[in-house]
């Protein structure tokens, strides 16, 4: 059975940077499932699988198509119950919903401001035009103005991770002794920043930085296959 993962990429198709795609990459690795990656640009998404999705990641697993990283993780746990669980039960799913909401409301907006010009510069010409138009309409400012505001985010970003830092004093992963999907949610956000901007926002000995390094090393170091920006 052929598995295909459609993944957002820049002009260099090897630079797959989407935080949501990285959640799915880590989920598939967690499950020990083989797949082929199909890199796409922003303007190519509408044409994949006969218009089967407006966003990526999109996973084709045989005849099954699943979009959205959270939905994909739920699907993988249901379809492959004999392999390591991504949630560890309904309680883990509920925890993951909270972590997803916190990550997207607190971390993603800050990373958008920090990395927005770096993301733009990773893209091919058509995708750059789409990205500039759509983000400036959505955020109500030019990319340059957003990036200028992002400089202040660099100084305060580490503080946003204090809840995670406190928890890591007692356990190595959000999931406990080993990672679960909630780890991959936050990892995806920091991996997005690492690949696009490469901006240092954590001290080397910060418990969150040490946790992130452990996540990069998971599953044969799959997180390190794309170098930092």
What does this entry look like structurally?
The protein has a 4-stranded mixed sheet with strand order 2-1-3-4, with helices on one face. The relative contact order is 0.15. α1 links the parallel β1 (3-8) and β2 (36-40). The protein has 229 residues and is α+β, with helices and mostly antiparallel strands. The mean pLDDT is 96. The chain has helices at 19-31, 69-79, 90-122, 125-139, 143-160, 162-167, 181-196, 207-221; strands spanning 3-8, 36-40, 58-61, 64-67. Helix content is 55%, strand content 8%. It has a domain at 3-79: Glutaredoxin (3-Layer(aba) Sandwich).
List keywords for this structure.
single chain, alpha+beta, 229 residues, Glutaredoxin, globular
- CATH fold descriptor of one domain: Glutaredoxin
Uncertain runs: none
**Could you name the CATH homologous superfamily of one domain?**
Glutaredoxin
What kind of sheet is the major sheet?
4 strands, mixed
Mean pLDDT: 96
Rg (C-alpha, Å): 17 Å
By DSSP (H or I, 4+ residues per run), the number of helices equals: 8
- What's the CATH class of one domain, please? Alpha Beta
From the helix content, strand content and strand pairing, which structural class follows?
Answer: alpha+beta
The helix content is 55-70%
Tell me the total number of β-strands. Answer: 4
Which geometry do the CA atoms define? globular
Return the CATH architecture of one domain.
3-Layer(aba) Sandwich
Q: Largest sheet, order of strands side by side?
A: 2-1-3-4
């Amino acid at each position: 059975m052929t598995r295909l993962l459609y993944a957002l990429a820049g002009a260099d198709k090897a630079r797959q940077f989407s935080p949501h795609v990285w959640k799915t990459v880590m989920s598939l690795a967690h499950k020990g499932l083989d797949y082929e990656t199909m890199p796409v640009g922003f303007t190519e998404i509408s044409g994949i699988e006969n218009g089967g999705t407006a966003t990526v990641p999109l996973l084709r697993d045989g005849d099954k198509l699943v979009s959205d990283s959270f939905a994909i993780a739920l699907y993988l746990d249901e379809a492959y119950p004999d392999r390591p669980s991504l949630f560890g039960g309904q309680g883990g799913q509920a925890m993951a919903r909270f972590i997803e909401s916190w990550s997207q409301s607190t971390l993603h907006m800050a990373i958008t401001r920090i990395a927005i010009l770096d993301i733009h510069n990773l893209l091919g010409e058509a995708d750059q035009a789409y990205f500039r138009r759509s983000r400036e309409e959505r955020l109500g400012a030019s990319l340059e103005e957003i990036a200028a505001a992002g400089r202040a985010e660099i100084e305060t970003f580490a503080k946003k991770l204090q809840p995670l830092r406190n928890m890591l004093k007692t356990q190595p992963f959000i999931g406990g002794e080993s990672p679960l999907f909630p780890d991959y949610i936050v990892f995806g956000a920091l991996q997005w920043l690492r690949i696009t901007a490469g901006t240092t926002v954590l001290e080397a000995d910060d418990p969150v930085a040490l946790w992130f390094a452990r996540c990069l090393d998971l599953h044969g170091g799959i997180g390190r296959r794309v170098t930092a920006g």
